[in-house]
């Protein structure tokens, strides 16, 4: 057994230390009975751990050999520092509002945890400071916990996404081969196994669950983790005071507002109120209440406007309009209800008078968005598409909101990527609006509760549907577009959910369906390229697929048998698609024309990525083209004239077909990913081939049609990658040399052509003259065909010549794309792996060394991109491990090379470790791989590699 965990105490002593408290209750509560670790129990002798009641900082440990009591405190402190390992602390998402006033509730919560409680509930009305207290505790006490995480429990979906997010940060593989109703149990089992692993037996964990509305089933299951993970604590925030009834051992901390001393301290923090009579401050508290949110708004408004205190308090007199509040917010205490919302409405009315009407329209969109975390980019996009006015800035809106403390700044979540300029303060900003602020906006909506309300809501939904279709890029192959898509993702998902509800209630027109189909596809591709939830990517792609077919009114085998992934029956016989039905569907797409004004609106409103803008500027020799990220009408006409854009009058016939090709191709890729993590491999592979085959046939039909004679689309090149799937479906087991030579010639010509332009949704996307990515995609296809030619060739001399040509292709690729120059291209690691696999066909030592360096490059690129173990990282590690010890020996690569994920088992593990695989996390498997590499290289004297491998295995137990 390989065991590299370091023990700081002598082997004859078993010490369990919980670094959250020095009190008797805490130590005793954590040392009674067996402790679970890695799924096994380890007994702790509680009789050998005693507590000196006279001092909480001295612990006496009795063993067979007495230890000096004078050294106890020092040893315990050193052990404590060594044990508090930082694994993941999500405190960047836990900021406090400006001028935050710490209240007595913080001390109460801290006291409960110190006394050994593992479940503390912060309760109180909205705006009472529950979340701020929780954030303060997490920030101040973070050094005592190895993991500090935050879950948002507004609804079951938010809670599930938070849980998935934590597992991704911890690099724990997500088991997606589950029904939606069962997925929570699977995720919690994975988290429990991770937290209980014996290498973390000295760690302590804290999870904050914020904004609990109701005790739903997901929440119940998550809190049940307390039964299985002994070192876990929960901190909950809710306005439901009855939540404690469900957990008798929980400690409740009720937030009922500030006391008199805290109110005075809070107001005196401001220079404006230092000379104000304390009696006036007390009067404010008496009239409007002591809820922190209300007092903060009062202080900010009085200071910002200079209004007299009595005049401000006059605004809190209830009027007829206040009666509508019962329809907006339900609180037991009417006093809270009115004072809370009125405190927000007063500054909102002031802002409405000062800002541009378009900016106020942006304000009214907030209730439909994820207002708890919204970036400047999202607000800017909404503002632009509402007005098309480049001079109008959302900075004015945010400035007034911050003046009145209606929002506060949050750090943009880190996805392992960086796309926004560091020196641009606004671009790096995200904002959080309080729920009460949003309720006040609803109260101010003149149509609220009337018959016009539904109509206004639908208009806003349609606007946002268009905005996110324009802003989210369907091409997510580089870091910039992927990271920018992620800024919009949570908002887009919320809009899609609301639109789905709208679809169920009433019939929608083809315009809405078109944008729904595009946005679902873009969201699905974003999830697919992010690589964190392939099942969810597949769900959105399937929705988009069905919407496209619904637009043309097509009901055929293209949809009849193709169900969502989890519902595939292993025993079912999936029927091969019929070409006649595919051709019929294609003709239906050709006959369906989108309205010209919709196509033109889409092209002119679509946000262009920096790479797209650079290509258009170089090809058109116009450095100011599309300077603001959007095409102008005259710019579009100019691009049409020089062949860099398709006229909207022609493209109206092509839009739906191109979108459907994207869906088929990406859904096939999603099935390809899903088949390696399921026991339904045969059926999933069949459906994967179904999608690729349909995509192939659509491409053939489109290439042969009149519409494609003058315009070539990017999907033609992507589609050529799925030739092997086409071969399976047609039953061809062998491709002739002539066919291979023709493929090589066509791709070679495509890579060298100086006139061929590939379009993507009506605009030039790739050109060999200005776009190295395009040529590298051709290199990838050339290598595939070179391998086929080598497989069919028997003459050794001819083989050598073919291999040299392929090696030249690899060298050309490496010259064009270097990892230091282009870290942002998401397909780069896969290309490195393919080039490495090709070079392994050689017997030359230097060539084999170059292949290993390419595998290492793929791994490095993925690690730089994000901190999770992706499929490309896994393939790179697998290829490196499999081939590192075959120096100078030709390697038989499996064909096709399939990704091997941790939970599927894999052939290179040593027999004694195979049985342990399902229990390992991805970080442990990665460490194992690196150690294996080090062992392989040790024979050649590579001591540094051995040290690197051993370091990766530190604290990992098999």
TrEMBL record:
- Highest taxon of source: Eukaryota
Which Pfam families is this protein grouped with? AAA_22
Provide the ORC1/DEAH AAA+ ATPase domain boundaries: 116-227
What InterPro entries does this protein map onto?
AAA_22, ExeA_AAA_ATPase_DNA-bind, P-loop_NTPase
Name the Gene3D superfamilies for this protein.
P-loop containing nucleotide triphosphate hydrolases
Q: Which GO terms describe its molecular function?
A: ADP binding
PANTHER family assigned: GENERAL SECRETION PATHWAY PROTEIN A-RELATED, PHOSPHORIBULOKINASE _ URIDINE KINASE FAMILY
What name is this protein filed under?
A: ORC1/DEAH AAA+ ATPase domain-containing protein
